[in-house]
Amino acid sequence: MQTATITIGCGQVLGVDAIPVQVEATTRHAGDGTPRLLGLVDTCVREAYHRVLQAFFALELPSPRGVTTVNFAPAALKKHGSGFDLPLALALAGAAGLYPPERADGLFAFGEVSLRGQLLPARGAVSVAIAAQRAGATAMLCSPADAELCSVVDELALHGASTLADAIFWLAGRRPLPQPTRSAPAQTDAVPDLADLRGHRTPKLALTVAAAGGHNLLFSGPPGTGKSALLRRLPGILPPLGRSERLAVLQVHAAAGLSLPGERRPLRAPHHTSSTASLLGGGADVRPGEVTLAHHGVLFLDELPEFRCDALEALRQPLEDGLVTVGRARQTVTMPAQFLLVAAMNPCPCGYRGHRQRPCLCTPAAVARYRGRLSGPLLDRLDLQVEVPALLPEELRAPEDAAGSTRTLRERVLLAHARQQHRQSSRGSTVTNARLADAALVRACACDDAALLAVDELLRRHQQSARGRVRLLRLARTLADLDDRAAVTDIDVLEAASLRGFTTPAMC
Fold it and tell me: Whole-model pTM?
């Protein structure tokens, strides 16, 4: 004889998104006594059945009688992870008659259940909450920590239960559960001030342009000149995360099972021995890589030529599209990867080519091999290519420059960013200057004849392609925004060409 069938919503995290899954449970009094878990579940989900039964026993809750059949739909999707513990437990409790079946209508649940019945956080709760909201769920049950984390998702009632008994009694209408308060962004440790670094007027301008317009940046110079120190201070002058951007960053980090960043944009700095899979993402269950973890933030690659060539070339697609696609035999997963790439490198293997005082010991062939590690198409995607020279001893003793401090440069960046947003909001676009399409770029620049002649002359002299022209104009537009000019002038074009590296020999 069949009893009631209970359905609880859940989600399977793939990459950073979650696919809705329905957990259905029913009991029959006839059978061989073996519980059946259907729907392509892995060992972790199969073990969840025994964890949940032990939690029922520890909390002195009635467990389902008879033979239990649990189906995880869609059946063709592989289910893995501990987040299925809670929906499985609630489905079994409903099949046992511990709460009215209609209370489960429109309910999603996600969380791990301990042997003592405690509800624990599970990887990917934010992704499941977003999937629940899009699926029209009325409420979601999870652990208190995950409920507070998911409170940024609008139009979804979230309830945090400390134990499985609290969750079941809430469904039975016998115990209230408080809704979590929307948490404020966590405070982030202060970044070092750019004023601590003496000199470097042009590199600091390049940092300001990169932050204001979202332009990728490459610093080249001898060891110890401050390339890495400059780039690590970049997050301090970036615009703050918007609401939608913060939700996307939370979703990515929760899907990766990492601690969440604070109020500033994320900064990822992988080692140069990182593999292609660690940069782009992968694994059996396709987890986010560094390019996705840097979404709406900064990806810092120090010692750029030391990275694997295949890993560097794989960056070309996410740099162009803002997405990374990882293909597997069973499925293809697309993850967001809209990041600001900043990199540092030495000019040669020994590092002292072009140094004011120390001679370079590298042969021309060694220099060519070293620079040949960076392909032309990759370098072409680095809008700013700036040399960071070694400073003289008297320059290191100079007083702090207030005009080059983090606070001052951040104010310039915020004003320039506001000008971009205001100019584009009337046309329904909010992208940075570095991502302006051709038609929008022409409208935004409003170049006069002198500026267009300067662009044409630079393209002829330096043999630049159509892509080079677009990137040059994007840089010039950001420079004009920093100086509060509505139209791009020939001065902006020439300064953009200098920051683009047109005045120096080609890199390869």
Answer: 0.87
